[in-house]
Amino acid sequence: MKLLVTGGAGFIGSNFIKYWFNKYPKDYIVNLDKLTYAGHPSSLKDIVGKKNYNFVKGDICDEKLVDKIMGGIDAVVNFAAESHVDRSIIDPDIFVKTNIVGTTVLCRQAVKHHVKRFHHVSTDEVFGTLKLTTSDKFSENSHYDPRSPYSVSKAAADFVVRMYLHTFGLPITITNTSNNYGPYQDPEKLIPRLITNAMDNQPLPVYGDGKNVRDWIHVDDHCSAIDIVLRKGQPGETYLVGVNCEKYNIDIVKTILKIMDKPESLISYVPDRPGHDRRYALDSSKIRRQLGWRSTHDFDIWLTKTVEWYQQNKWWWRPLKARAESIYKK
User: Fold this and answer.
1) Which of 34, 225, 310, 329 could bridge across to 241 with cysteines, CB 3.0–4.6 Å?
2) 150 part of the active site
3) Domain map of the chain by residue range?
């Protein structure tokens, strides 16, 4: 199989490429990435040089480039996206361009080149927020209610992909997943920011009261879910991917400090960000029931392993740290 992976130098994309080559070493992957703040070639240093891997630096909004590299592709896995809520509040325009216009370009060229499967990676944030006082979870039938520039752009991209199914016959699948964690995640994101700040004995900022809830999944479990959707998922279907791992943000902070043997005096409560969704939770029974997907990464064990990875790989995150922190000073 020949895959086009967009955004393959980012956190989830780079982990997916390594996952795929480990499981399907004879497949060919073209990695298209613009190498913005979220794309790091260092995440794929062990892949560079493989005869069945080709990195292309470029923008998914570049129609001519996408047309050129789409030829002969069997499946597209679209990770490419602007994905940081805080950044979307500061500069919404780039989120519209990349997440909506870019996805449209990819779909149009996938139709032109008769791609057999277009898989679009999306987020639980398109569904809005849930109340802390309920046990409700989002499902594939939940209505869309995005509340940030980021989630609005991702919701629009989901609808673009579905439109290309209904209007142009593009065989698409979509996964909406919960918050990912694991190695090679940019230190501007919550868990790696907490870990790296703690390593430097810097304050660990917590928005509001710290009681916002996120549903956490290890990146390798996410990759295995995409794998099974590509192989067994039905064209036109959406699958929610989560592992029933809801955690208060403040509990994540305290757990990381405990793992690292750091004092809770490092916790620093800061004003909440605008439109901060209170709770996300996903019902992933469909992908489990219909496709037989199972998660294999226990949160407590793999959060500890993630802490250890950052402790052992300063060479990767240290050059990114100053830029990552700068976004929070705007």
Assistant:
1) 225
2) yes
3) 2-180+217-241, 182-213+245-274+298-329
In whole angstroms, give the CA distance from residue 193 to residue 257: 12
Q: Choosing from 125, 186, 188, 277, which is the catalytic residue?
A: 125
* C-alpha dihedral (303, 304, 308, 309), degrees to nearest 10: -30
Task: Go through the chain and tell me how many residues it has.
Answer: 330
Alpha-carbon span 237 to 162, nearest angstrom: 9
Architecture of domain 182-213+245-274+298-329: Alpha-Beta Complex (3.90)
- What is the distance of C-alpha 71 from the center of its chain? 26
Asked if 207 is an active-site residue, the reply is no
User: Can you tell me the distance from the alpha carbon of 29 to that of 5, in angstroms, rounded to the nearest whole number?
Assistant: 7
79-120 tens-digit pLDDT:
998 776 778 887 888 888 999 999 999 999 999 999 999 999
Q: Alpha helices, DSSP H only, in 271-313? A: 285-291, 299-312
pTM of this prediction?
0.96
Best CATH choice for the domain 2-180+217-241 from the list 3.40.50.11440, 3.40.50.300, 3.40.50.720, 3.40.190.10 = 3.40.50.720
Q: Which of 19, 53, 150, 181 is catalytic?
A: 150
Helix (H) / strand (E) containing 104: helix 103-112
**What is the dihedral angle through the alpha carbons of 199, 40, 185, 22, rounded to the nearest 10 degrees?**
-120
pLDDT tens, residue by residue, 216-269: 999 999 999 999 999 999 999 999 999 999 999 999 999 999 999 999 999 999
- Closest of 17, 109, 96, 30 to residue 62, by C-alpha: 109
Catalytic residue among 124, 188, 215, 221: 124
**Which residue is listed with tokens 């920011």?**
193
